[in-house]
Amino acid sequence: MKPYLLKGHERPLNFLKFNREGDLLISCAKDHHPTLWFSDDGYRVGTYNGHNGAVWTCDLTWDSEKLITASADSSVKLWDVASGKDLFTFKSQEPCRAVAFSIGDRMAAYTTDQFMGQPSQIHLVNIADDLSEQSGDVIKSLSGPKGRVTRIAWTDLNRTLISAGEDGFVRRWDVETGKITAENRIHDADIKDMQLSKDGTHFITASGDRTSKLVDSQDLQVMKEFAFERPANAAAMSPIADHVVVGGGQEASQVTTTAGKAGRFESRFFHKVYQEEFGTVRGHFGPVNAVAFHPDGRSFCTGGEDGYVRLQHFDATYFNLLNKQEL
Length: 327
Hints:
single chain; mainly beta; 2 helices
């Protein structure tokens, strides 16, 4: 595989997101400017300018018309994808971290960090069809866990939110009552990433305890575990095969003391069921902080501490391996 190296950020990458069709890719980094790329050839379309802090996560509507971003500048912004226009800003008193549109895009959930005596919370807001009617009012706030909530996802036809936190817990929240209905400490360190499967029946996590785990969305029980020799920062599942990719590497603060090979700044492929490692992709000059599979499963991308996005299109060797595994 010969990757496209996308240089659009001056600081480390935090998050990568494809739209539903897969023709667009959004990258979020610590340099305040989410960036839009064409996923086929890595052409840089433009940036979304308006945040004054690191942008941690983002999400796109089903029709790819709106983008929502969460930033350390204590704001969540709604953008027009095509024009880059800042449509609306949800203001908070605490740094914002995770964000996700509901199924149907009529609501959004975002998280705020524990700050100045305020606990970490999940906030629910309405997304209006007519922007002139858009309100910044929070319709419900969910609180309970200590420490940051690093990822959230909607499931069960918007009746449930799943969250992952730096305390190592994954939780199910009842959206109607705001109560925790189930929780399970599946990691011994902070959970840095969580991504739902295409059908929503399970999800994958990545943690600083050097493991990535496959978890049932309903009972939050661990189904599979993938061992990583260094802290795991991100993990994603292929939409077409029983494959997962896990990215990570030695902590960024320790990078200068270790050779790149020893730091394990790589993306490692595992079989989803048998948990066997069958491939490694290197290239970043620092920890891999974000990974994402293309919706058609024919490519994937990684974002690193080095500020680069590497867009990788699978070659014939990968698909030959895929066909053999299916046999």
